[in-house]
Design a protein that fits this description.
This protein is α/β, with parallel strands linked by helices and 371 residues long. The chain contains 15 helices and 8 strands. Bound molecules: phosphoenolpyruvate (PEP) and manganese (II) ion (MN). Phosphoenolpyruvate (PEP) binds next to helix 6.
Amino acid sequence: MRSFNFSYFCAMNFTPLTQWIDSYDRPLVIAGPCSAETRSQVLTTARGLAALPRVKVFRAGVWKPRTRPGSFEGTGTEGLKWMQEAKQQTGLLTTVEVATPKHVQEALKYDTDILWIGARTVVNPFSMQELGESLRGVNVPVMIKNPVNPDLKLWMGAIERVYKSGITSIAAIHRGFYHSEKGAYRNVPQWEIPIELMRLMPGLPIICDPSHIAGKREMLLAVAQQSMDLEMDGLMIETHCNPEKALTDAEQQINPAQLQALLDALILRSPRGNREFERNLQVLRSEIDGLDYELIQLLAKRMEIVAEMGRYKYDHHITILQLDRWKSLFADRIKKGEKAGLNVDFLGALLKLVHEQSIEIQTNVMNKTHD
Ligand code: PEP
Ligand code: MN
């Protein structure tokens, strides 16, 4: 099996957003309705958005992936014509969702500037392969949403397939992940996944889609703010001239005036501070570095003693796991940790990890001694 090649991904050379969009200040704002419904809805929304200087790209779905047949499935080519008209009237760039090579062909025919691939398509490597092949030799930026399920490798594989078609103007869109337990979010953000993507594919622009994460208007700002604090590059926010009457995703859409208010309320913190700030931060960071070093030394020492215990248990024909000892140790550490102000779930997970490793070390010691 081919192993996960970290250096291969790191070497991918993505075109920065600044090179595919003429002039914009971070965040790049992409806005527009979930679906293109009628000509007047598309044009009214586009005009409303063009009045907001921060909005650079106009989005709309013309082929809608719906859970059940019979719901509104988009306006297809007709919708593309309205998008083209909106582009001509407002000067905004346009983007639509494509799911098949035929969609790609149609979207390009109507001058779509940027394509995006939706969460339900990204889950399917066959579809991604076909889309990748249909994009060969085509010069168009492509945004790739995360797959519905929290599978980073699947997301990266989809990006890789588009990249291999020769396209380097690629952005990832973080739209949250399906979760069976109904919580506050429509799709749980699991921020650690896009953060890991940033580490593994440096230089890949990441756009947050707070609309599909939040699922409701009231939570959009908090999600958008969080994405900005994680240094994401852009926002895709569903905006409709009459959100309450939207045919799809009505609860999460806002109107252009509400989008303006949201953008005004966003606090854009910079990744770097002034010299004094950087110096003070450095002091705190060195303290953390020192503590991490101590933690590592302590863990190594703990594991050495564990190995010694393994040998001692072997010599005396004693089992590795003594459940009572593990139970009382766990309870004791949790109590102490709680007193020290640690989150018990975090400490519990950490203790289990340490215990697992201890069992593994003792097992190895016993097997070796046995050989
Ligand atoms: C959308 O952007 O309207 C859409 C269908 O999103 P997703 O693929 O994230 O569900
Ligand atoms: Mn939508």
